[in-house]
From TrEMBL:
<keyword id="KW-0540">Nuclease</keyword>
<keyword id="KW-0548">Nucleotidyltransferase</keyword>
<keyword id="KW-0235">DNA replication</keyword>
<dbReference type="InterPro" id="IPR037160">
    <property type="entry name" value="DNA_Pol_thumb_sf"/>
</dbReference>
<dbReference type="InterPro" id="IPR029398">
    <property type="entry name" value="PolB_thumb"/>
</dbReference>
<keyword id="KW-0269">Exonuclease</keyword>
<dbReference type="InterPro" id="IPR002054">
    <property type="entry name" value="DNA-dir_DNA_pol_X"/>
</dbReference>
<dbReference type="GO" id="GO:0008270">
    <property type="term" value="F:zinc ion binding"/>
</dbReference>
<dbReference type="GO" id="GO:0005829">
    <property type="term" value="C:cytosol"/>
</dbReference>
<dbReference type="InterPro" id="IPR043519">
    <property type="entry name" value="NT_sf"/>
</dbReference>
<protein>
    <recommendedName>
        <fullName>DNA polymerase beta</fullName>
        <ecNumber>2.7.7.7</ecNumber>
        <ecNumber>4.2.99.18</ecNumber>
    </recommendedName>
</protein>
<keyword id="KW-0234">DNA repair</keyword>
<keyword id="KW-0832">Ubl conjugation</keyword>
<comment type="function">
    <text>Repair polymerase that plays a key role in base-excision repair. During this process, the damaged base is excised by specific DNA glycosylases, the DNA backbone is nicked at the abasic site by an apurinic/apyrimidic (AP) endonuclease, and POLB removes 5'-deoxyribose-phosphate from the preincised AP site acting as a 5'-deoxyribose-phosphate lyase (5'-dRP lyase); through its DNA polymerase activity, it adds one nucleotide to the 3' end of the arising single-nucleotide gap.</text>
</comment>
<dbReference type="Pfam" id="PF14520">
    <property type="entry name" value="HHH_5"/>
</dbReference>
<keyword id="KW-0488">Methylation</keyword>
<dbReference type="InterPro" id="IPR027421">
    <property type="entry name" value="DNA_pol_lamdba_lyase_dom_sf"/>
</dbReference>
Length: 597
């Protein structure tokens, strides 16, 4: 099966390789086609099966690209792309993941010094070979060297937003199999970490062979990496998935163990040891009545013929089937997976002071959205209707202001914003939900804003975001955001660091200082729920919560479909220990109006 994302990735590679060989215009056509195929709601392989014309019906997909898509779906490869790969045998995705290295640079460096991989790029930069290439200098070479570690890491991790739908689909599929009892995700994906090394899935079953067989038969399974009777790994949609099968009696223990984090587990195990208990993936055991050496990992004393795991099942079993019972027997309240990072959650669970975390159902509306007035794809009416349909009580229209980092014909100048006031008011008058009119204005490098102060004061809500100069040092970046946060009209700082997961580190910010300044100024700091951003990150949210400040969980939706990203923002808020009272959008529209004034 060829998923839309897979086809889109291939077209992006096609575009990169064309660009590397100096082709103009065409690469952008491929990239736009890739975007629209990735967003297309129907499966591309079914569409391709009905012919090229059907594929060409997708917006911005022309006949030439449609025929390549069909070629790929039918044969598994595209001749022209294979030729491009042969003439430029480089690891394109890995090399272009280095900030500042684009396809053209990759082409040049291959011609000049034969670089094909990240390792070769690093070696050449360290040897000073890159600064010798025409068009490059010592500064560029140093930049490349500085950005390689981030790139290397990004190559090994997948964005949550790419991995989570794969996990959801897999769990839904496994649930349909007879042999499968309970099924749940574990690992970092259950903790909703912003990037994922691999997806861990756990199944309770007495027939692990049937489960493993069902797993490898899954439609989305691409290649099997490792097949065992209780643990199998495969790749699906570019994501590595580890499946473990355990007996129902031990499901809770395995779920606890494989959810991690490793640091959380280490602290929990120490707590167990202090109670004379043994904690592992098979259960929680009271070993106080046993000889002390039974707990040792030295296999010499155990029966070599038996299951090695049997030496782990010792003493009196206290819990194993249910995860909640595992925690309860350790004298702890059940700890939500998002908190399991060893940052005080075990003490809080022991003292009964765990936070009551915000939930998706607590959110009453979005404070940062776009329409076709700037770079959104839909009218204000459509966006408001979609918000009402999903049960929201309010909706904020915050199109881009023109300014640093925003393409001129996308952003609104002050006149256009004034014109938009009447348009929003007209939609608001016709809508059952409360519609606020605002703007997403830009924070320049010095902290000044792109929109006139008087106009900002007239708007219902002002989101101010950094869109340019994202390489400032920590002091300058923090000063910049604090300046914007204390502007009398600013209500929300949008995607405060400007990071893009796996592709741009964003501003380095002293979060404690920003959080305290923003809390004093009654300005909310955004958790941008777009899975390419998740900005603020969970740790930064924690700083806001501890400073007594407010976070806003916004989708920054450019279309109704993007409202669905809200869950990623809520989970990120939970990773930062946020309760409903800490969250701007958990307010009712009347409470929000009061906050905005
Ligand atoms: P990832 O996949 O890199 O995003 O992160 P995780 O947390 O999913 O890590 P992974 O997939 O290597 O292992 C899943 C869980 O299994 C991990 O969170 C905790 C548990 N685990 C794995 N190895 C160890 C270990 O050596 N010690 C302990 N205590 N737990 C481990
Ligand atoms: Ca994992
Ligand atoms: Ca794993
Ligand atoms: Zn925005």
């Amino acid at each position: 099966m060829r998923s839309n994302d897979e086809v889109a990735r291939l077209l992006v590679e096609f575009a990169d390789r064309l660009e590397a060989t100096g082709v103009e215009y065409k690469p952008n056509a491929y990239r736009r086609a890739a975007e629209n195929i990735a967003d297309y709601p129907e499966p591309i392989d079914q569409l391709a099966a009905t012919g090229e014309d059907a594929v060409a019906e997708i917006d911005r997909v022309g006949d030439a690209i449609a025929s390549k898509v069909v070629e790929y779906v039918e044969t598994g490869s595209i001749d022209e792309l294979e030729d491009l790969r042969e003439s430029l045998p480089v690891e394109m995705a890995a090399l272009t993941s280095v900030e500042g290295v684009g396809p053209k640079t990759v082409g040049t460096l291959y011609e000049a010094v034969d670089i094909t991989t990240l390792d070769e790029l690093e070696a050449a930069a360290e040897a000073g070979e890159i600064q010798e290439v025409t068009g490059f200098g010592a500064k560029t070479e140093q930049n490349i060297l500085d950005n390689i570690p981030f790139a290397r890491q990004s190559q090994q991790r997948e964005r949550l937003g790419a991995a989570r739908p794969v996990a959801d689909d897999l769990c839904a599929y496994l649930d349909t199999l007879d042999a499968v009892g309970r099924v749940d995700v574990a690992g970092s994906i259950r903790r909703w970490k912003d990037t994922i090394g691999d997806v861990d899935v756990l199944v309770a079953s007495d027939d692990s062979e049937a489960v493993v067989e069902g797993f490898t038969d899954w439609d989305d399974a691409d290649d099997v990496i490792e097949a065992g009777s209780h643990k199998t790994s495969l790749r699906a949609d570019g994501v590595r998935v580890d499946l473990r099968v355990v007996v129902p009696d031990e499901f809770g223990a395995a779920l606890q163990y494989f959810t991690g984090s490793k640091e959380h587990n280490v602290r929990l195990r120490n707590r167990a040891i202090a109670q004379d208990y043994k904690l592992n993936e098979y259960g929680l055991f009271d070993i106080s009545a046993l000889d002390t050496d039974v707990d040792s990992d030295d296999p010499a004393g155990s029966d070599a013929a038996s299951d090695p795991a049997d030496s782990q099942r010792v003493g009196v079993k206290l819990a194993g089937e249910s995860e909640a019972a595992m925690y309860a027997e350790l004298g702890l309240a059940w700890i939500p997976p998002e908190l399991r990072e060893d940052t005080g959650e075990i003490d809080a669970a022991a003292e009964g002071t765990l936070p009551t975390l915000v939930e998706t159902g607590d959110i009453n509306g979005d404070c940062h959205t776009h329409s076709e007035w700037s770079d959104g794809g839909h009218s204000i009416e459509e966006m408001v209707a979609a918000a009402a349909d999903r049960g929201d009580d309010f909706h904020c229209v915050t199109d881009h202001a023109t300014g640093p980092g925003i393409i001129e014909d996308i952003g609104l100048d002050d006149d256009a914003l004034r014109e938009q006031m009447a348009a929003v008011a007209a939609v608001a008058a016709d809508s059952d939900i409360t519609v606020f009119h605002g703007v997403e204005t830009n924070i320049a490098a010095d902290g000044s804003l792109s929109t006139d102060d008087e106009l900002l004061a007239e708007l219902d809500i002002v989101v101010a975001s950094p869109h340019s100069a994202l390489d400032q040092d920590t002091d300058a970046a923090t000063d910049r955001l604090c300046e914007a946060a204390t502007h009398p009209s600013v209500d929300v700082i949008g995607h405060p660091t400007g990071r893009l997961l796996n592709s741009r580190a964003g501003l380095s910010v002293d979060m404690t200082r920003l959080a305290e300044t923003a809390a004093d100024a009654d300005t909310a700091l955004e958790i941008n729920a777009n899975p390419a951003r998740l900005d603020l990150a969970g740790e930064a949210v924690r700083a806001v919560v501890e400073a007594g400040g407010t976070v806003a969980i916004n989708t920054d939706a450019h279309s109704p479909a993007e409202f669905d990203n809200r869950r990623y923002g809520v989970k990120t808020a939970r990773r930062g220990w946020a309760e409903p009272a800490d969250v701007l959008n958990a307010k009712t529209s009347a409470e929000l109006r009061a906050f905005l004034h």
